[in-house]
Specification:
The protein is α/β, with parallel strands linked by helices. It has 12 helices and 10 strands. The structure holds 5'-O-[(R)-(carboxyoxy)(hydroxy)phosphoryl]adenosine (KG4) and zinc ion (ZN). Zinc ion (ZN) binds near residues 111, 115, 137, 297 and 332.
C-alpha cells in the first residue's frame, strides 16, 4: 500500500510518500521560518497564505522524489487537528480534492499522534509497551501512557505554557531570532564549549556581581512543579523568572557584559527545562513500569534533552529502552503522519473511507 500524507497544521508545508512494504519513499518539508522571523513568531493569516503557495509544489516534489504518481497512491492521509485553522484547511482541502477527483480513500489524522509515530517511521522494534511518552512541542507538553498502538492515557500536561512556547518566549526576552528553541540551544552549547575549554565567557564584572553569583551553576532558575506529586508541568513561572533576572542583570551590568552573558542565561534556562522534563518523565516511567521511554515533538530535537533522558533511563532502569525519532522527524513533517496512517490501516483502526465530511479542529486530544 502506498500512502500520500499531507501536513500543514502550523508553519511547515509537508508531503510524504510511504510504502508499507518499502518504507518511507520521500518527505518534503517547506519551512516558513524566514517569513516568520520578521515578526518574531507565526502570524496565522500569513502562515495559511504561505501554505497555499507551497502546497502544490511540495506535493509534486514528494511524488517525484518517491518516483511515483498520484494514480499509484492507495490512500491519502491528512492532518485535520489540532493546529491553526487556516493552515489546516489548506492541507485538508487539497487532500479532499485529490481524494474526490481520483477516487482515493482518505484518512483524517491527529497531529499529536503523528508526533508519537515519528518513532515508527523506521519501524522501530525497540518500542515496547507499556511506553511512557513525553510529547513536547510549541503547543503541547504532555506525558502519555501508551499501552499499545493507538491506546493513550494522559498522565499529565502543562498547566500554562508549552515547553517549546517557553523557549520561544525566552528567546524574545534575550532578543534572539525566531524560532527560539534551536537558537537558545545553540547559545547554551556555546557556553558549554567555552567552559570545557576553560575559557570562562563572562566578564569579571558579572562574576563579582552578588545577585548573580549562582549563574553558571546550572541551577540558577527555579524548577516549578518538579517535585509535585502529579505529572503536570508549569513553565510560565520559569519564563517570568528569566525575564526579571535578565532585566535586573541589564540594569546592573555594562552592555558588553550583558551581551556576553546571553549564552549563560540560555544555558541556565535550558538546564532548568531539561531537568524538569526529565525528572517527571523518569518518575512516570517508574510508576507505570514502562518498558519504553520516548520523547517526540519539536523540542525533542533538543540535544541536551535527548542526552539527559537517555542517560537517566540507562542509569535508573536495566531493561527499559529509550526511543527518540531522528532530529529531522521531531519537528512537523508528513512522514510521521504517513507512518501513523500505516499503523492505523494495519490495525484496522481506520477503515477504508471515502467520506469527505470531516472538519478541521484547533483542539483535539489523542
Ligand atoms: O512540533 P513542532 O515543530 O510544532 C508544533 O507542533 O508546535 O515544535 C515547534 C517547537 C518550537 O517551539 C521550537 O522552538 C521548538 O519546537 N524547538 C526546540 C528545538 N527545535 C525546535 N526547542 C528546543 N530545542 C531545540 N533544538
Ligand atoms: Zn507539531
Amino acid at each position: 500500500m502506498r500512502i500520500l500524507a499531507i501536513e500543514t497544521s502550523c508553519d511547515e508545508t509537508s508531503a510524504a510518500v510511504y510504502d508499507t512494504a518499502e518504507g518511507l519513499l520521500s518527505n518534503v518539508v517547506a519551512s516558513q521560518i524566514d517569513i516568520h522571523k520578521k515578526t518574531g513568531g507565526v502570524v496565522p493569516e500569513v502562515a495559511s497564505r504561505a501554505h497555499v503557495e507551497q502546497i502544490l509544489p511540495v506535493l509534486d516534489e514528494a511524488l517525484q522524489k518517491a518516483k511515483t504518481s498520484l494514480k499509484k497512491i492507495d490512500y491519502i492521509a491528512v492532518t485535520h487537528a489540532p493546529g491553526l485553522i487556516g493552515s489546516l484547511l489548506v492541507g485538508v482541502n487539497t487532500a479532499k480534492m485529490v481524494s474526490a477527483v481520483l477516487d482515493k480513500p482518505i484518512l483524517p489524522m491527529n497531529h499529536l499522534e503523528g508526533h508519537i509515530y515519528a518513532n515508527f517511521i523506521d519501524r522501530n522494534k525497540n518500542f515496547k509497551f507499556p511506553a511512557v511518552v513525553l510529547l513536547v512541542s510549541g503547543g503541547h507538553t504532555s506525558l502519555i501512557l501508551m499501552k499499545d498502538h493507538g491506546k493513550y492515557k494522559y498522565l499529565g500536561e502543562t498547566l500554562d505554557d508549552a515547553a517549546g512556547e517557553a523557549f520561544d518566549k525566552v528567546a524574545r526576552v534575550l532578543e534572539l531570532p525566531y524560532p527560539g528553541g534551536p537558537n537558545i540551544s545553540a547559545e547554551a552549547e556555546r557556553y558549554r564549549r567555552q567552559i570545557s575549554n576553560f575559557q570562562f565567557p563572562i566578564s569579571n564584572e558579572v562574576v563579582a556581581s552578588p545577585q548573580h553569583k549562582e549563574l553558571g551553576s546550572g541551577k540558577f532558575f527555579p524548577r516549578s512543579m518538579m517535585d509535585s506529586k502529579d505529572f503536570n508541568f508549569s513553565f510560565s513561572g520559569l519564563k517570568t523568572s528569566v525575564l526579571y533576572k535578565w532585566q535586573d542583570f541589564i540594569k546592573n551590568n555594562s552592555k558588553p557584559s550583558t551581551l556576553n552573558a546571553i549564552p549563560l542565561f540560555c544555558y541556565e534556562f535550558e538546564e532548568a527545562v531539561v531537568d524538569i522534563l526529565t525528572t517527571k518523565t523518569i518518575k512516570a516511567a517508574e510508576k507505570y513500569k514502562a518498558k519504553t521511554v520516548s520523547i517526540c515533538g519539536g523540542v525533542a530535537a533538543n540535544k541536551r534533552l535527548r542526552e539527559e533522558i537517555g542517560v537517566r533511563v540507562k542509569n535508573k532502569f536495566k531493561k527499559v529502552s529509550f526511543c527518540v525519532p531522528p532530529i529531522e522527524y521531531c519537528g512537523d513533517n508528513a512522514a510521521m503522519i504517513a507512518a501513523c496512517a500505516a499503523y492505523q490501516l494495519k490495525n484496522k483502526k481506520n477503515k477504508k473511507s471515502f467520506n469527505l465530511d470531516f472538519e478541521v479542529m484547533s483542539n483535539k486530544e489523542l
